[in-house]
Amino acid sequence: MKKFNCLYLDIILGGFFGTIRGLILVFFFLFIFKCISMNNYNYYVKNSIFFSIFFQFVNYFFNFFGLS
Fold first, then answer.
1. What CA–CA distances, in Å, run from 27 to 41, 45, 50, 62, 68?
2. CA gap 34, 23 in Å, rounded
3. Is residue 39 part of a domain?
4. Which pTM value belongs to this model?
5. How many domains does the chain fold into?
6. Over the Cα atoms of the chain, what is R_g?
7. Where are the beta strands (DSSP E) in the chain?
8. d(C-alpha 26, C-alpha 12), whole Å
9. What is the distance between the terminal CA atoms of the chain, rounded to a whole angstrom?
């Protein structure tokens, strides 16, 4: 780490913003997919492991902070 002059904060922020960028790209992809075919979009969202885990995490987050 010191050889590259990289801080732990840089790694944490890079991972955080990389995750945010990935989510934005996935939702952009799904938006394009939705415009092409609504049936395929609904099938993908219902059967996607990523979205089931993501929506459970969001639901837990909202319940934890009392935002629901």
1. 11, 11, 12, 20, 22
2. 16
3. yes
4. 0.46
5. 1
6. 17
7. none
8. 21
9. 42
Give the residue numbers spanning the domain of 33.
Answer: 8-65
Give CA 31 to chain center in angstroms: 14
User: d(Cα 42, Cα 45) in Å, to the nearest integer?
Assistant: 5
Closest CA to 22 of 54, 47, 48, 52: 54
Q: Determine, yes or no, domain membership for 3.
A: no
Q: Which of 41-45, 55-59, 60-64 has the lowest mean pLDDT?
A: 41-45
* Mean pLDDT, residues 10-39 taken together: 84
Question: Domain for residue 2, yes or no?
Answer: no
Residue 1 resides in a domain: no
